[in-house]
Amino acid sequence: MELFANLLGRMSLEYFPKEPATIGAAIGMPLAVFGVVGLLTYFKKWRWLWDNYLTSLDAKKIGVMYIAVGLIMLIRGLADTLMLRLQTAVAVGDQAGPFSTDTFQQVFTAHGTIMIFFVAMGLMFGLINVALPLMLGTRDVAFPLLNSISFWLFAAGMILINFSLIYGGFSNGGWLGYPPLTELQYNPGPGVDYWIWSLQIAGVGSLLSGINFFVTIIKNRAPGMTFMKMPIFAWSVLVTTVLIMLAFPILTATLAMLSLDRTLGMHFFTSLAGGNPMMYINLIWAWGHPEVYILVLPAFGIFSEIVATFSRKALFGYKSMVIALCAIMVLSFIVWQHHFFTMGAGANVNAFFGIMTMIIAIPTGVKIFNWLFTMYRGKILFASPMWWFMTFVVTFTLGGVTGVLMAVPAIDYQVHNTLFLVAHFHNVIIGGVVFGYLAGVAYWFPKMFGFTLIERLGKLSAALWQLGFILAFMPLYALGLMGAVRRLDHYTDPAWTPFFIVSGIGVVIICGGVFVLVLQIALSIWKRKSLKAGGDPWNGRTLEWSVPSPAPSYNFAVIPHVSERDEWWHRKQHKLAHAIDHYQDIMLPKNSSIGLIIGGLAGIAGFGIIWHIWWLSAIAVVAIISTVIIRSNVEETEFTITAAELKNAEAKL
Amino acid sequence: MSTLHETQLANQKTELGFWLYLMTDLMLFASLFAAFMVLRVGTNGGSSGVDIFNPQYALLETFVLLASSLSCGIALISARFGKLKPAVIYLVITMLLGASFLFLEIREFALLVLEGNSAASSAFLSAFFTLVATHGLHILIGLVWAGALLYSITKKGLQPRVLHKFGLFALFWHFLDIVWIFIFSVVYLIGGLS
Q1: Which of these, A646, A557, A634, lies nearest to A591 by C-alpha position?
Q2: Which fold has domain B14-38+50-190?
């Protein structure tokens, strides 16, 4: 019995959920998973799923999986929001809210973590995978297998974070888990460990993706595509990958140190034995600030493509856009201290970081004006991606203005850690990142599946999001100025309640926006025959629109030669018909389940560490290393499509 | 089969990707170095660097690791000239020296822990053990990789594919050398003498 108990680490029955809300989630989520499994089995779709998606090394398929996970997690994160706002609408004075303080804390921690790591990052990598290789005129990313491994590490992190709902509970330490609250002394349970290891595993996946896309852009561009002829989206990805490669190792190291404190009793960030919690706050923001630019820059790239396409004009100020991206790349690393002006760095340090933060508004402003000037005198078509762009410009600019406001340390002292801050960063992250990636999904959806999404529902979704956003967050600005601190599960001033209720209504409207989005996808799949899109449904400018929709697995039958910045537009304008006469054999990577295996093993290793089941983690790590060694000795990793087969395939399209 | 040109291109990509990976690893070490410098004073009234570090011993470790890098270089050059036997012999020497380094490091750690200076004793020791052990862990991974490489060389001979991997391994091994030089300077010299 003793031995058996040791085999299970610190697992015990007491870690099953006890509150009604968490019990509901713990029952509902497995039911949903079983439902999906059941449907797949009933329709005999497992083989199809396995061959076409789970083991595929085709970047476009991996991208679709990222986007699917991102959208599902968006719904999960939104459900968290509903719980938070329900609580704050009720819990005032003598009244208690429906959730205990601990549950409330877990919910806001999960909300932040999921939205940043599994929604924003997921949609970002998804859209990069779908669009980047096509835009660069190449058949694939530089390392297709690594791409699959990245996705499955991301998925393993996602599963761990959601599994905490069923068993063990999640961290209550906020999305960045500041010590000493997240240290062993105050938080001995498994919640913080779930948080650490789900981010750690997903973070390694992101890091590998960063390397992969960087090499793809450097080495895989079509002949003739110089750096200054690359689509601006590719530039934004290039800059983002540089930020990923520089910032994510800091996250890995920081989380590792926190984990060592928690599992081996070390003292990096404890308030005892010489540890220094401030060092954690510096390190995590040295990653965290670049991270917000990692999220938003590809969204800027997407908007640059969308605005140019739907204004029927070349992007205004391409060079200034590139310079602005590079400026942001540098500046984003020297502003991190503005997240904790109040934590005692002193006036001079605060002044430096305050000024740097204000300066970063300049390149961002350059971009806004570039987009507006692109629209000026353009023949604008207000398709649904443009609706997302319009909501973005208004929302994001407003968020930027409140950001510059808070860059003034004296003002920050007033609003630090209040709901004013919460309103600010939602203003830029929803306005910039969420609207950006939803625009990207609407824009590239026909390229992924060969049919467009129903336009009217897309516009309705954008309108609901915009309305809901205003109602949900404008009251938070006011509340912040009235002194409401963030992460508050109960308050005493009844004057705040109406604001919280309005904010809650806003959240409900946003939920309506997401519902319409899901409805849009479902109805469009239903009516896909009548929504069929040709290769170029938007009259696009860049190379991804030069191939049929959905893009064939090999992307381009013949690799294009590029002479202009907007190559596809140039060809259409000058009627450069692209008669293909000679095909060559091409090589594509074979499907591989290695990514799935490594992701699964990484998840098991993480689970073992969370529950102190050391033998399980050790076995999983050894298995990962063995898998890598075995794979590195596999010689035939590619298959050939012969010229004749290619010719047949093209003729059918 | 892929053409020669395609293979070259693929190798170029892998090499660039591997350099980038090394740079990200450098960022990881940089974070740990920063943590060490910050927490150096956090001795919690216990042992400080002057009390426990033995720079002569660390110098011995340094020479062992540098020697393994030298033999790794010789092994790679031999392999590129198609000389199988010296390539194998020097690779084995590299592994032996790497393992000796690891042994010396583990011995040092064990002695420290026996004296009551474990990673959980103070923030300073947490930072020290973590930084140095992370390097040691890399050496261990390098040894496993070298073993796999040795297997490929003896099994398949010096094919282009194997040579390419050999080059990457050598990069990794030299990189660990450079990181160690910084550990020697920052931890054992600055931390142990001042």
Answers
A1: A634
A2: Four Helix Bundle (Hemerythrin (Met), subunit A) (1.20.120)
Instruction: State pLDDT tens for residues A578-633.
Output: 666 678 888 888 889 999 999 999 999 999 999 999 999 999 999 999 999 888 88
Mean pLDDT of A309-332: 93
Nearest residue to A258 via CA among A179, A194, A336, A191: A179
State whether A632 and B119 contact (CB < 8 Å): no
* Binary contact (B123, A268; C-beta < 8 A): yes
pLDDT number for residue B1:
45
| Cβ contacts of A272 on chain B, cutoff 8 Å | 44
Cβ pair A215:B119 closer than 8 A: no
Nearest to B90 by CA among B181, B152, B170: B170
Q: Do B35 and A253 touch (CB under 8 A)?
A: yes
Report the candidate in A281, A489, A473, A318 with the shortest Cα–Cα distance to residue A395: A473
Tell me which chain A residue has its CA closest to the CA of residue B117: A266
* Structure-block tokens of residue A532: 């069929």
Q: Is there a contact between A431 and A391 (Cβ–Cβ < 8 Å)? A: yes
Q: Residue A644 pLDDT > 50, yes or no?
A: yes
Residue A520's pLDDT is what?
94
Give the C-alpha separation, A595 to A624, whole Å. Answer: 10
The single-letter code of the amino acid at A495 is A
Q: How far is B160 from chain A (nearest CA, A)?
A: 12
pLDDT of residue A634: 79
A-chain residues within 8 Å CB-CB of B27?
245-246, 249-250, 253
DSSP designation for A639: E
Taking a C-beta distance cutoff of 8 angstroms, is the pair A287, A258 a contact?
Answer: no
| Length in residues, chain B | 194
Task: From chain B, pick out residues whose CB is under 8 angstroms from the CB of A265.
Answer: 120
Is the CB of B42 less than 8 angstroms away from the CB of A274? yes
The pLDDT tens digits for A379-428 are 999 999 999 999 999 999 999 999 999 999 999 999 999 999 999 999 99
**Dihedral (CA of A93, A95, A98, A100) sign:** positive
Task: Give the burial string for A204-238 (b: 16+ CB within 10 Å, else e).
Answer: bbbbbbbbbbbbbbbbbbbeebeeebbbbbbbbbb
Using the predicted structure, report yes or no on whether residue A5 has a pLDDT greater than 70.
Answer: no
The answer to whether A112 and A172 have CB atoms below 8 angstroms apart is no
ipTM metric: 0.93
Mutate to test the interface with A, among B9, B20, B23, B128 (most CBs of A within 10 A): B20
Contact A274 B2 (CB under 8 A): no
Average pLDDT over residues A113-142: 94
Q: What is A64-102 written as a DSSP string?
A: HHHHHHHHHHHHHHHHHHHHHHHHHHH-BTT---SS-HH
Q: Can you tell me the distance from the alpha carbon of A518 to that of A441, in angstroms, rounded to the nearest whole number? A: 12
Which residue in chain A is spatially nearest to B130 when comparing CA positions?
A257
Give the CA distances from residue A12 to residues A5, A16, A17, A168, A185, in Å, rounded to whole numbers and listed in that order: 9, 8, 12, 9, 20
In angstroms, the CA A490 to CA A95 distance is 9
Closest CA to A304 of A239, A364, A243, A370: A370
Residue A512 has pLDDT above 60, yes or no: yes
Q: Which two tokens stand for residue A455?
A: 């336009």
Number of residues in chain A:
653
B130 touches chain A (CB under 8 A): yes
CA distance A522 to A445: 13
